[in-house]
Amino acid sequence: MKRYDRRAICLLFLLFVFFSCEKNDQDTLLNPDQFEFGIVGELFPSIKNEYEKSIQIIIPQDFDKRQLRAYFKTPDHTELFINDSLQISKEAILDYSQPMTLQLRSNGKDISSSWTISVQKETEAYGLGKYLIAARSLNRSWDFYIDQYRTGFYAINNCGPAVVAMASKWVDSSFVQSVAELRASIKPDGSLWSTSDIIQSLKAQSIHANVIYLGQFQNVIKKEIDFGSILILCLDMFDIKQNTNRIQKRGKFYTNTSRGYGHFILVKGYQIVDDEIFLEVYDPNSGGAVYSLNQEPRGKDRYYAAKEVQQATENWWKYAIVVRPKN
Predict the structure, then answer these.
(1) Domain containing 242 — which CATH number?
(2) Whether the Cβ atoms of residue 281 and residue 311 lie closer than 8 Å to each other
(3) CA-CA to 242 of 20 to 30 Å: which in 34, 44, 67, 83?
(4) How far apart (Å, rounded) are the C-alpha atoms in residues 133 and 4?
(5) Helices 195-204 & 159-171 angle (0-180, nearest 10)
(6) What is the pTM of this model?
(7) What is the per-residue pLDDT across 44-103, written as a single tens digit (0 to 9) for each?
(8) Boundary-marking domain end, from 125, 149, 182
């Protein structure tokens, strides 16, 4: 009797283990959302939105959407379809100029997962538009961006010395003075800098700087950038539209609700997209905020619509400080 009981118990235990393992395998099969999808050469890993069932891909501006090589990795016993076409291999060259539908189906199961694939070039992903007509950027091989909120006790008022430090670093990669040190040399009490203070500080670094009138605004800015010079503007940020999207780079990302918010920014390039001109700027007012994709400061490489910047300078200071590179 005891021997029989022991055999029965062992048999029940083995059946329990078998069905438990089988159940776990089924659970794996019933989770087709665990997959990888991307485009060869994409700027960032694909952005999957589980709630909307969407996949956003950002590709370099010079890529052709009609000829993109995609790669896939799916769970075992799962088939992948793009626009209802079964994908046999792990890579495929397809046309992504229009949104595509990706579907995963578990073999032998009435279970599937559908996703919308959207491929965007940089100008689209950053909120500028679809067609890039012309562009010029005066970036350097070294980093010269500064977040004013990391510049000491008077950080909230340090947009002036911060743009001087950025401009100085742009001119000379060996520039080492901190924003706090620049601040200490002019108005050490922490009060706001004027445009005259900017010029004085630049000249103290032996940097060539002159003031120009922004009459034909867009033509003047474009001409100076094409000539190889960066510009420092003093403007009312109330006129720059806000954009809180943490991926896009168009517009300011912070809030100011009333006119009279004077601020210094550095202009180092432009892009003409869909016949609209955007200025490529370093805005020192990051406040520690970062882009969601690369964790860089959100004031770095912002794009402000030229027509908005023009209005903002007309309402504050109708000139620009031009900083030229070393001869």
Answers:
(1) 3.90.70.10
(2) no
(3) 44
(4) 85
(5) 30
(6) 0.86
(7) 999 999 899 999 999 999 999 999 999 998 888 888 899 989 988 889 999 999 999 999
(8) 125
